[in-house]
Design a protein that fits this description.
This protein has helices at about 5-15, 15-30, 45-55, 75-95, 95-105, 140-160, 170-180, 205; strands at about 65-70, 115-120, 160-165, 185-195. It is an alpha+beta fold and about 230 residues long. Helix 3 runs antiparallel to helix 6 and helix 4 (about 75-95) runs antiparallel to helix 7 (about 170-180). The longest helix is centred in the middle third of the chain and has 20 residues, at about 75-95. The model has no long low-confidence stretch (mean pLDDT about 95). The structure holds ligand FNR. This is 5,6-dimethylbenzimidazole synthase.
């Protein structure tokens, strides 16, 4: 039987109540950051801690398919921002009417404002062509890379560092700007920098774009939709 009283739970998990609360605090207050970045550079040892958190993520077959390209150069970040702007113009046209105007009003990146860009990539060849756990679903290496990003994002939250994930790019543009080989997948451009405030709720929710769904509508028991 699993223990349920507080002391037994702490003993079993190795986490004190305060430590458990800290984990949930980081999860619940993590935000995607676009416009609140401070210009101060991130210390190298702090960046190293964030990358170490990322590097301890789970990965299919322990493949560790990720690479991290650290971009401090303002000139390179300006080129990346221009690639975003071009893709974003295309993206805006995919929404109709008032939705397009609402889309245009959103700020969806902080590429130049954030002092550090982190391009996270996935190398599908990292551990040979046959990978334990990836044999029937080749996307598993990308999923693993996303786990690394989430680790980094949560560690950053605890360090007072804001992260903004930008995905509005043509992949070829990023590859060409950063010299990324053809067989490598670009998974994310992360804007990273200190922040002194964060939204309490997702910015897209605050700005009326889309609201959080009720969890109970998303959970099924013993099969798709059987509890409705
Ligand atoms: C894969 C992926 C890709 C993107 C994002 C996230 C993820 C997971 N998000 C951030 C996204 O909008 C945000 O996570 C949600 O709106 C929820 O807000 P919080 O992250 O809780 O603040 C995001 N935000 C943005 O402004 N521009 C973007 O291009 C993207 N791209």
């Amino acid at each position: 039987m699993r223990p349920f009283d507080e002391d037994a739970l702490s003993a079993a998990s190795g986490f004190s109540l305060a430590e458990r609360e800290a984990v949930y605090h980081a999860i619940m207050t993590r935000r995607d950051v676009r416009s609140q970045f401070l210009p101060d550079p991130l210390p190298d040892d702090l960046v190293r801690r964030l990358l170490t958190a990322a590097h301890h993520a789970p990965s299919v077959g322990f493949m560790q398919p990720w690479n991290f390209i650290l971009v401090k150069s303002a000139a390179v970040r300006t080129r990346v921002r221009d690639a975003f702007a071009s893709a974003n113009d295309e993206a805006a046209l995919m929404f109709a009417g008032e939705r397009r105007q609402a889309y245009r009003a959103l700020k969806l990146e902080g590429i130049v404002e954030a002092p550090l860009g982190i391009c996270v990539t996935c190398d599908p060849t990292r551990s040979g062509s046959v990978v334990l756990g990836r044999t029937h679903n080749p996307k598993m290496d990308s999923y693993s890379t996303v786990c690394a990003i989430q680790n980094l994002w949560l560690a950053a939250r605890a360090e007072g560092v804001g992260i903004g994930w930008v995905s509005i790019f043509r992949e070829g543009d990023l590859k060409s700007i950063l010299g990324i080989p053809e067989h490598i997948e670009v998974v994310a451009w992360l804007c990273a920098g200190f922040v002194d405030r964060l939204y309490d709720e997702p910015e897209l929710s605050v700005k009326g774009w889309r609201q959080r769904l009720p969890l109970d509508e998303l959970v099924f028991y013993d099969g798709w939709g059987l509890n409705t």
